[in-house]
Each structure stands twice: as structure tokens, then as C-alpha cells.
Amino acid sequence: MNSLKFIKKAVAQIGIFAAILFIISCNNSPKTEDTKENAEEHNEAKFDNNNQEKDAQFLVNAAEIDLQEIKLGQLAQQLGRTASVKELGKAMENAHTNSLNELTALAKSKMVTIPTSTTENALDAYKKLNDKSGSDFDKSYADMMVNDHKDAVSVFEKISTDGNDADVKAWAASTLANLRMHLDKAMVVQKEVENLK
To answer: At what angle do helices 166-193 and 83-109 cross, to 10 degrees?
Structure first.
């Protein structure tokens, strides 16, 4: 009889202890690591020259742009209502995958660490779009592509003239033509979908 009471009491205590551990582990779930922040920290430690850091930061930002456009392009192919949005998504995925491959080789040759997976900013943009559907999605995606590519063109223009490393400047300048073409395509699609209901 006493051993049965002891066993019941022990089982109850173990159950309470397990519940407490479960609650603690849920509240202390580790935050996913942002590969952009990680890359920036690695580059700051590597480069003691502001000019090198500036070029490295550009490569980090360019990788973030490519990773975001790839992910959003995939989403547009899945959720897009119109053929033009789906086609724009496919074009963005393909072009930014190629750009990321070139960028990865350039960064490696310069010993610059770049993000290797979608960053927090890109995931936020993805979540905003993923919550939309139908014509609302198409309009939001087209608007985002126009705004993103206007920003990207501005960043790439600046580094292609003000950058310090000749290879980084050359890559930025050669990528500008594609970014401008993407902006033009996005503006055409934006115009097509603006009156969708």
C-alpha cells in the first residue's frame, strides 16, 4: 500500500517536472540566426579598412537582394493569379539565381562572407505577400518588385561609381543592365494588374 502511494506521488512529481521543463523550453526557443548579421560580423572582423568594409557590405546587401527575389519569385509562381505575375516571378527567380551564383564566386575571391539563406528582412517581405491572394497578391507583388528594383538600381549605381575594388565595381556595373530590365518588366506588370478586382 505504501509503495503504491509512493509510486503515485513520484509519477505526479515527474509529470509536474516534465510540464515545467516543457514550458521553459517553449519560452526559450532559440531565435533563428540571421545570416546577414552573421556575414556582417565576419566581415567586420576580417577587414580593418573602411573601403574594404564598404565593398564587403555592398556584396552582403546584394546577396540579400538576390535571396529575397528568388524566394519571392517562387512565391509569385505559386500564388500569382495572372500569367504575367507568374512569368515575372519565374524571370526573377532565374535571373537572381544566376546573379547569386556570380556574386558568390566574386565574394569568395574577395574573401567576403555573404548570407547563404534568406534573411529576416526577406522573410518579413515573404510573410507579407504570403498572406495575400488573388488580385491582391498580384498587385502587391508587382508593387514590391518595382520598389525593390528601384532601390537595387540606386545601390548598384552608387557602388559601380563609388566602389573601391575594381572587380566589385565591374560586377555592379554589369548587373545594372539586368536590374533595369527587371524594373522595366515589373513596371509593365504593375500597370497590367493595377485595375484587377
So the answer is: 170
